[in-house]
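step=encode ok
step=design start
structure_in=
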């Protein structure tokens, strides 16, 4: 079934490249051409999905905790506890008087990490001048894949980091491959997301900083998370419009059966909303997040069936067909459903499930 589905996927590509796409005017005319994202001055048009490196669980590790750093980057996390991204944190989890020491520890941890580490290595820096001090330290290491930028309120906040990397990094690869993930933590940031998402070719994702956003917006945090629906939906919409990762909020509870149930509910909700991953504050959360933000076996099987049958229908000139479900019901399958099926296969491949 898998081989048939993938052959069908390839057979359908030619037909779908002819589909019309529409784009919107760029919201970033005020940003210099030098810093602009060269391939997406306009939002990314919907098209055939491609497998990308997944960023499902982003595990934060305090930069001042030497033992935790060694565990996260030295092979202490194994099996399902290995996150797609380890984020060495220099911001909220590090006290002010420990910042300088944490920079040293993080740089040393990056340098000593094994070459075959499965996780991508990110660093969350501080906002403002303290963040530039962080960069001066961590950019000395080649072994850094991305940066989490907190409290990004405008495109200029992100461009300050972009420019610092280009001017001061001693490693040429940082200028082309280092990914920046902007943390959306305020109403101002929410209103400026289009400019933030498209201002630099280094932008790789948008992340929701729920607690700071609630504080800045005077939202009352509730178990339903209903009060954050608009902000979260907006982040997902802008992220996908520009072809970026969309990283959901932290589950602040991490011990006990109740915490596990809350985490599972948040993961299910986040993926249904369109988020591609979720932040984690404890290794115990990683396996749940990794599983939740990857297609299930049932989803993969259904996607393969859609690909196979759509190719057959197309060969006889049919634009749509009925797909019979396990319960005996029939779903109408057409072009948009094919795109969804292709996306599921791409996600499964990226997660190593196919």
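sequence_out=
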């Amino acid at each position: 079934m898998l081989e048939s589905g993938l052959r069908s996927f390839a057979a359908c590509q030619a037909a779908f490249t002819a589909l019309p796409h529409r784009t919107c005017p760029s919201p970033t005319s005020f940003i210099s051409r030098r810093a602009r994202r060269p391939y997406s001055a306009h939002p990314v048009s919907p098209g055939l999905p491609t497998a990308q490196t997944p960023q499902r669980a982003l595990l934060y590790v305090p930069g001042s905790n030497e033992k935790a750093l060694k565990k996260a980057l030295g092979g202490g996390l194994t099996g399902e506890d290995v996150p797609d991204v380890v984020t060495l944190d220099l911001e909220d989890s590090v006290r002010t008087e420990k910042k300088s020491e944490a920079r040293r520890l993080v740089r040393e941890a990056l340098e000593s990490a094994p070459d075959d580490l499965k996780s991508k290595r990110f660093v969350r820096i501080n906002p403002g001048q303290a963040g530039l001090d962080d960069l001066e330290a961590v950019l000395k290491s080649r072994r850094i894949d991305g940066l989490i930028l907190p409290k990004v309120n405008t495109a200029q906040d992100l461009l300050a980091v972009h420019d610092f990397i280009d001017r001061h990094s001693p490693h040429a690869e940082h200028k082309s491959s280092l990914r920046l993930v902007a943390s959306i933590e305020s109403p101002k940031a929410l209103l400026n997301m289009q400019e933030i998402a498209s201002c630099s070719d280094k932008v790789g994702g948008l992340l929701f900083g729920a607690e700071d956003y609630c504080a800045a917006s005077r939202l009352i945090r509730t178990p339903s998370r209903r009060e954050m629906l608009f902000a979260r939906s907006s982040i997902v919409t802008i992220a996908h419009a520009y072809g970026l990762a969309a990283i959901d909020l932290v589950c602040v509870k991490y011990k006990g059966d109740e915490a596990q149930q809350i985490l599972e509910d948040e993961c299910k909700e986040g993926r249904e909303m369109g988020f591609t991953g979720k932040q984690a504050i404890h290794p115990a959360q990683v396996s749940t997040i990794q599983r939740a933000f990857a297609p299930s076996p049932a989803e993969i099987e259904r996607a393969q069936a859609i690909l196979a049958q759509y190719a057959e229908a197309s060969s006889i000139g049919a634009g749509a067909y009925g797909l019979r479900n396990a319960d005996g019901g029939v779903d109408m399958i057409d072009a948009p459903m094919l795109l969804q099926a292709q996306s599921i296969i791409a996600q499964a491949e990226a997660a190593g499930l196919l």
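step=design ok
step=annotate ok -> The beta strands are 57-62, 85-89, 120-124, 146-149, 179-184, 203-208, 245-248, 277-280, 321-324, 330-333.
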